[in-house]
Amino acid sequence: MSATWLWALTLIVGGASAGPVDSEDKAEHLKTYRQIRKQFSEGGDVERSRLVRWCGDRQLWREMFEEGDKVLTADPSHEETRRFLSDVAATAELESDRPTARPEARVRAFLKIIRDARSPARAVVAEAKIETIPGVDRRDPLIKALSDRSEVVRVVAIRALGRIGGEDARYPLVRVQLADPADEVRSAAFEAVQSLQQQDPDFVVPYLSALQSSLPQVRARAAEALGALNVPAAVPAIIKTFAQSSSSRPPRSSIFVGQQESLVTDFDPEIAQAAVIADPIVTPITTGVVLDVAILGVERRVTVEELVVYRRVLPRLSGASVGDRASDWVSWWNGGGHLEVAAKILEQQRERKAQQDRD
Fold first, then answer.
1. pLDDT in the model for residue 67
2. Strand ranges for the chain from DSSP E
3. 110-118+139-199: CATH, from 1.25.10.10, 3.30.70.20, 2.130.10.10, 3.30.43.10
4. Which one of 140, 149, 223, 327 has the lowest number of neighbouring Cβ atoms within 10 Å?
């Protein structure tokens, strides 16, 4: 390593400024930065990461982002650089940020920076800045961002909502976890739900509704999530879905289409002393068609993967080893399985209460 590079490295590691930096100091720091940059052709990721910190400590924000982009372009997961950028986010200045703007507008501006993906360093700071806005003010734009075209934006919105929580975030997060086409997005959504479910057990309710979806992959993901969240109360719903998915008997229906007419076909005479009375005999005639139809137009798609999920999840939640057929599980439930599940739920509630008492 050359002497000039050692000199530049000494400057990088040298003492950082504390507090606000006035214009004269900033000009001097900028001059020093340009001198360091001239010697930087030999520097690697470690040295450049230190230069990012050096610029940030001296509030050279533009230069910090420029050097940070180079580090994160070479290594998007560079831990030291990402951590430092997150730490200085509260004071770092983003060109498009207007601190006096409405909180919702600021969140949208930060998400736009992340969506554009032009500056990975600015994206890290923008995500951290979202955390500085009160949860109530940032929840709505984050929920809307769950439908953004950018996977990165959706993941950022999910992570932020996972820290905010609240009833408004429940169904949107579950919907993303069940239906988003990207594996990374679904994984992030489930991690958020898993964290929030500890505080709000009702987060599992949307999964129970999803078991009746017409899409097999949604039903399977819902059952898988209920198993991972350890919700024994979901056992009867999963058994019902398993039985419906395993049934090969088509539904049937019948309908009669016709008309009915009444005809006088005869008379019943009665002869009295001074009169003759004849009661008419009325016979109804019914004509029409009876249709008995097996309804095959209503389709319920089932995949082998879906059935495998039910066979894997049910023993985990119930603690029972019954078999691979849905009929076995239905018989088990009706024969006393519901009592076993009830006992498991009570045990789980006692453990949760004990944990709360310890905390």
1. 92
2. 252-271, 276-294
3. 1.25.10.10
4. 149
Q: Whole-prediction pTM value?
A: 0.72
DSSP 286: E
Tokens representing residue 243 in the block: 């039985």
User: 3-class DSSP state for residue 18?
Assistant: coil
Q: Which residue has the higher pLDDT, 96 or 193?
A: 193
Q: Which of 17-26, 134-143, 229-238, 342-351 has the lowest mean pLDDT?
A: 17-26
Helix locations, 88-134, DSSP H: 103-116, 120-130
Looking at residue 90, its amino acid is A
What DSSP string runs through 146-185? Answer: TT-S-HHHHHHHHHHHHHH--GGGHHHHHHHHHH-S-HHH
Hey, what long-range contacts does 294-303 have (CB within 8 A, 24 or more apart)? 294/250, 294/251, 294/252, 295/250, 295/251, 295/252, 295/253, 296/250, 298/251, 300/214, 300/244, 300/245, 301/214, 301/215, 301/216, 302/216, 302/245, 302/246, 303/216, 303/217, 303/220
Mean pLDDT within 158-177: 90
Start-end of CATH 1.25.10.10 domains in the chain? 110-118+139-199
Residue 53 has pLDDT above 60, yes or no: yes
Q: Which residue has the higher pLDDT, 262 or 232?
A: 232
